[in-house]
Write a structure and sequence with these properties.
The chain has 236 residues and is mainly alpha-helical. It has eight helices and no strands.
Length: 236
């Protein structure tokens, strides 16, 4: 007699429905849920660490530019302009990482709202199709937050205050720090007049302020700050 064939064939109907019994059996489903939840929380924590790392690098670069610019009266003030440019680059990295972090956080919040919250308060409301929504998002992961909302939120909470520090330091650097020169003379960059640099920095700051405080539709799910969370987004 031949030995039984234990090889896994993904084309067989039983193989394609390998987890179907878990969906039907309540005990099997509840035993699977903690493992899945821990995996999602671990992934969310990893992506949050990447966000924190981006912020740490941005602060380190700003501190270095401030130290170089105020080292002496002969130090060029355009080090602070380099810091502003670097801050924009870190912001772009941060926005992309924030959107992927929010996608994982949204799944975590969906589980907490409909499994754990309901376990503590069975009379509370739940999303009746939350399992289908989770399954769809696991099959075709989508970003839940638009670029503009992510940009506005990250500017408001982190990067706009850092940019304000750089702009205030730059204004002090071209005015009071070198009293023997006019602000236009001090602000000049090799090949660029001081007037053009001053107008460019002020326009850049005003444009950033508009991006920061311009009203946007709230789509991020599961945050605090006293705002009503947005609806679960299947696609964005």
């Amino acid at each position: 007699m031949g030995e039984p064939n234990d090889e896994f064939n993904p084309e067989e109907p039983d193989a394609r429905d390998v987890a179907a019994e878990v969906a039907e059996e309540r005990s099997e489903f509840m035993s699977l849920m903690p493992h899945y939840y821990r995996g999602e929380v671990s992934q969310m924590s990893t992506r949050l660490d990447r966000l924190d790392l981006t912020i740490d690098w941005a602060i380190a670069v700003i501190v270095a530019m401030l130290a170089l610019s105020f080292q002496s009266t002969g130090s060029p003030p355009y080090f602070l302009l380099i810091g502003m440019f670097a801050l924009v680059m870190f912001l772009l990295f941060d926005v992309r990482r924030y959107r992927t972090y929010d996608a994982t956080r949204s799944r975590v919040r969906m589980i907490e709202e409909n499994v754990f919250a309901n376990a503590f308060d069975p009379k509370g409301s739940v999303h009746r199709d939350w399992r289908q929504k989770l399954g769809h998002d696991l099959r075709t992961p989508t970003l839940k937050v638009s670029v503009w909302e992510a940009l506005s939120r990250r500017l408001k909470h982190i990067y706009f205050p850092l940019e304000t520090v750089l702009v205030v330091a730059w204004l002090f650097r071209i005015t009071a720090f070198v009293p023997k020169e006019t602000p236009v003379e001090t602000a000049a960059v090799p090949g660029i007049s001081g007037e053009f640099v001053i107008v460019g920095v002020l326009c850049f700051y005003v444009a950033t302020a508009l991006l920061t405080f311009w009203p946007t539709t709230r789509e991020a799910k599961g945050e605090f700050h006293g705002e009503k969370p947005g609806e679960w987004k299947v696609e964005k």
